Amino acid sequence: MSIHYKIITESFNHHFADVDTQLKQRMWDLSDVLEIIDYDETVYYSNELYDQFILNDKQIIDWLYDSDSDSDSFRDEKTLLQQILRRMESVEEDDILNSIEQLRNKKYDQKKALITFYNWSHSAIDPNLIIKTKDNCYLARRFHLKFLNNSNEFFQYLESCFPHLYVNENVKTTLRRLKPFSDYNNEIIRHLVALNDTALPLLREHGLQNDTDLLKRLSSSSNIECSNQGNPSYEKKILSFNFPTDEGEQTLITCAPHTKLFNKHSGQRIYFNWGNQKVKKGERILIGHIGVHL
Q: Pairing relation of β-strands 285-292 and 268-273?
């Protein structure tokens, strides 16, 4: 799922900046975005970017390369922007404008997203496709993920969309049994968003002393049905899955808590574990199974 990212040229104009916007922070935010762009993805910018007034009376081209005393106070920011520009590819401004027009017209056959420096927005463009920070990148990836109707491809990009989850390799097989997959992908994404964005913060805030309470909180905050199995012997026999440890071995982990796709009587579920210190240092929710009720 290679996304083409286009820098919004005019978003570098200071008119889009908040009153309290710190130029250095915006530079670091943009640098962070580039850090998590996948190896097969590219960020494009137009050379017209250099004409933008990044400060009240300074175009980027002058601001980057002059050496007056005012500019010296932005030495670090200038160096960082030069480094950022070297990591991107230049295109004609018309290419940027065409991408904006395609997204404005809801044309998603080509996977694209826009990167803004200051607070540029467009009422006709889905806000998930306008990136300002690295966290916005995950929203853009999830947006395009919902159009993947091939379960193998869907599985391949889960980790890049949900950085707080670790999905068992077994899931690649069980997803194939959900047919047609297009009937399930959006609902699966909705649940994975809840587990990625909400479950781990809840765990860190409340701990795992009361599993039932955590599941109720997750259900309430995310509007999904959650439950536990409750039979230890059944859980150990049926709901245990092999996960690779950080030491390169295998460990059997029980994934008894589960969410129920679509409704509380659903026959399709996501079984998970709140995390295990042997896998990804205990910093991820472990997904053991996505598919039919076990």
A: antiparallel
In contact, 188 and 261? CB cutoff 8 Å: yes
In the three-class reduction of DSSP (H, G, I as helix; E, B as strand; rest coil), residue 257 is classed as coil
How far apart, in Å, are the Cα atoms of 2 and each of 36, 40, 144, 198?
A: 13, 6, 10, 27
- The reported pTM is 0.91
Q: Whole-angstrom Cα distance, residue 42 to residue 22? A: 26
Cα gap 266→287, rounded to integer Å: 18
Encode pLDDT of 73-117 as tens digits: 788 889 999 999 999 999 999 999 999 999 999 999 999 999 999
Element (H, E) at 190: helix 185-194
Dist. CA 23–CA 200, nearest whole Å: 32
pLDDT, mean over the chain: 92
DSSP 268: E
